[in-house]
Amino acid sequence: MRNTESIIYRIFDVIIAHPVVVLSAFLACAAALGWQVRHFEVDASADTLLMRGDKSYIHAQLVYREFGDQEFMFVAYKPLNRSVFDRDTLDDLRDFSDKLEALDRVSSARSILNVPIILDGDGGLASGSDFSAMTMENREYSPDELREALSGHSVYEDLLINRNQTVLAIQLIFDGDKELMELEGRILDLEKKTLDGELTAEEQREINRLERKADPMRQRLQEIRRSEFEEIRRIAEEHEDGAEIHMGGVHVLAYQLIRIIRNDLIVFGSAIAAMICLVLFMLFGKLRWVVIPAVCCICSVLPTMGLFGLLGLKTTVISSNFIALQLILTLALVMHLIVQYRECSAEHPDWTQAQRIKKTIKMKAAPCFYAGLTTSAGFASLLFSGIQPVISFGWMMIIAMFFSIGASLILFPSMIALFPREDVSTRWRAARSILNGMAALSLKRPAFIVLMTLCVLGGAAAGMPRLTVENSFINYFRDTTSVHQELSFIDRELGGTTPLDIVHTLSPSKDKDDLVMTAAHIRTMQRIQQAIGEYEAVGKMLSLVNFAELAVQMNRGRPLTEYELTAAYWLMGEEIREELFGAAFSPETRQARFSMRIKDSTEGLNRAELIADIRKDMERISDEDEPYMLTGLFVLYQEILEQLFRSQILTIGLVLAALLLTLLAIFRSIRVALIGITPNILTTVVVLGTMGWLDIALDLMTITVAAIAMGITIDNTIHYTHRYLGERLSGTARRSVEHTHGSVGFAILYTSVVIMTGFSLLAFSDFLPSALFGLLTSLAMAVSFAYNLSMLPILLNRFVKDTSLRGQYEST
Amino acid sequence: MERKASSSGPVFPTGLVRILAVSCLISAGAVFSGCASVNGGSIHDGRVPEGDAAAENTDDAQDQVTPLVVGYDEYRDPLISINRAIFVFNDVAYRYLLIPAGTGYVNIVPDPARRGIRNIFHNIRAPIYAVNNLLQAKPRSTGKNLARFGINTTVGLLGLFDPAKNWFDIPREDTDFDETLAGFGVGYGVYLVLPFFGPSDVRNSLSTFVDYALHPVPHFTDQPLSTAIRGLDYFQEYAPDAEHYRDLHSKFEDPYIFYRNLYLQGKLRDEEY
User: Fold this and answer.
1) Which candidate from B62, B247, B265 shows the least CB-CB separation from A571?
2) Are B20 and B93 in contact (CB under 8 A)?
3) What is the ipTM of this complex?
4) Is B265 part of a structural domain of the chain?
5) Domain span at residue B65?
6) A132 contacts in chain B (CB < 8 Å)
7) Domains: count for chain B
8) Is the pTM here over 0.80, yes or no?
9) Backbone phi, then psi, for A249, in 5-degree steps?
């Protein structure tokens, strides 16, 4: 122990002796890694949020493949001051649609202009008419005929035209990248084996190899999509004189998410940085105390991002907060060093700069290191959550912590060594009185503090059962933003956003020889469609039922016979069969698919309940030999969210255990470790309880907030406890509290003030998860500050015995 | 879902049958009307549509739906051994005679011409529609069909065009005596496969005689011209479907059963809806 310590201090001696060399070396390394930031990626696409290799994910992929899914998006076109069936409207739409169709990857632009529209007078099925020629491209329709033919249309309504007939839509269908599809097909073939068994090491290696090959292609696709959206936007602007144009769909959502996360990173990143600098300057009144923390923060954040870029760790919606977090944690570390340095300066004005730095390091290296280590341990527990995006968030924070420790412990001494000694400066009076007041309160009125703490704890805990889990991507955007309006417009008017699929296996007992499908099969499907279609949140739903409805309509309202259905099925030609039925029915697996989009913006939508209700309906309607499966993004998102929620308790438990063990290792006392864990528990309960009381649902972004609250709190606790125990070696409990408040207390107060002011700015973000993150983080900071400086000393005074302390603590 | 006939007979065999009838057996007078029926004569005849039977599994009131596709399980075919033999015979005849002829017609005659020809024949059949409409107690439909006949014969140049529908918005409301009988509650009897004619049943075969008597052509022309004209009628109506026969035939292990059930289910559906 002594040896390692002396080696460590010798290293610091070197740093202090050759600050320029060390600083340049560090900056060079940081710059080299930081340069890799260009590889850093924000990825909010559906895939990053899902659990690759997870069973549900594989099932969903299999369903997509079986039914030949194609990528699509919607462009809504709402003519201003004229009817949707007006000739000018249709001409403009045709022009717009032609331009969109000319885009590289667009395979078709489907709209009412080019789909068959069958009028009542067309004579029905018996007329022998060529229905595929009955489009606006081939014949004239009067506005009234169109209104009539499209009103309540079983396929086109809510898809190509809204119910009120005020909005038209172009459904853009995109060609997939053949090479990528082939690769993903091979990956899927291998992954499919995990459904009934284990993969061999060989197969796993093959998957990894293919994934490595597919990854850059996926990134390229993402990039292409981005420029496509921008191109479509540009084309849309040419038509915006006469119409309101909106884009919607899952990929548009992902694009907008990435845009707003990137935008927030830049806008709020700089605003927070500016605010932090300002507050630092106000607190310390010296430029150096602005420059040093700033450089430390930059030198920890940039290389971390660069390394993630190199490692290919993508920032997802879940981990997009890591920069903010790393900033907080780095700042906290630096703040403690600054306060310690200034304490040395005040106590020993005669010391040289090197002596002051040495003393600072001697006092603070250990707690800083411990704090960083403990935070890492806390985040390491996320690795056991079993949820890929959370696991990568855990890894990201562990890596980030090491950079932060490195940056603060190496950069701080080498930078401060370049500055002249600081004359003792006056401390912020208000700060002093606040800290004195808190010290006095916890010494003189412990009962009051305990009571208050219990009240807060009880109140917050009562809010926890009110916590709900809900994830609405559209509501991530503040409802006054154009993005929210655009996405919810399509969501409301054109049949929803998030895809949900029901795959229903046709009952073999209802089969008849020769028939593709029997009346009984269709009857069951009709029941399913009717039951599920009744939910308010279920938007456009398409299945064989819609086509049967259309056939009946063409048959002048009379039902088809099951033999006619089969004859029609075989006679329509393979291509049309594939196009019409391919997405709704798979003859090989005898599965029918109901594909729908869920209206994400539905008021008060309880997603878990919706899924449970749909399952109940399916159980009620299907027979035992008719297995069904719910899949699609909606289900996958919900599953990951529920898994996150379920794993919350486990994760929080693991975090607590990890923190407890680290505290035990640091302080070598079970009592101190147990006391040290209490602030974490309180902060977590308060944060979650507040969310419960304020009806803030846990979603994919806020669900990590509990872990984050702990990560922030533990720093303060370790610094405080470390100092307090050190003071107790030579003094009474009372003196220890006063001294600790007068030293570490400042660092805690300053850190809290800086971070709370900085992060409160996030409340102005249009990205609501960021706003919530900012506010909840500030709340966590406030609680942590209050508890660590009032309740923690009471517990330490009460439970740490002088005698027991000596033996244990001296060794550290 | 293109081109799906709702005629009272099966889609293609009947068409082929009619073509055959035209070219070979017109003199026998056993001609089958090829009209789509819109009659709502509802006879249940003790048969339970299968969809309803399945509904018993989940008799929740909330899950009641109007069936889009119906099925029936009872096929009255006591003459199956004879029917099968004729079916085999017909198959050969269709393959080597009717399909080549029908395909040739479609390929040679352009679409507008075929449409015109089709209009003319629909117009000629107007008396069949009008009388049967009357027998079905639907005088409005009778009136409409007579008005159509008047308009299309004059303005429409002997029925070549359909101004009644296009200008006056009076669509055709076709029917036949078979439907009239069905409306009176007469069952189809048993299934029959007639040589060349293909799928049929007792009621349909008998009703053909009545419709034949109402057809204007035999009254105004002599044999063999009359037969030739009516031959062309049936031929043009079903020629476009001729090539599909083979496609469908090849899909089934026992095409006889498929065509029979297709025909009879259509019949039963027409009776019910």
Assistant:
1) B247
2) yes
3) 0.75
4) yes
5) 16-125+174-272
6) 2
7) 1
8) no
9) 130, 170
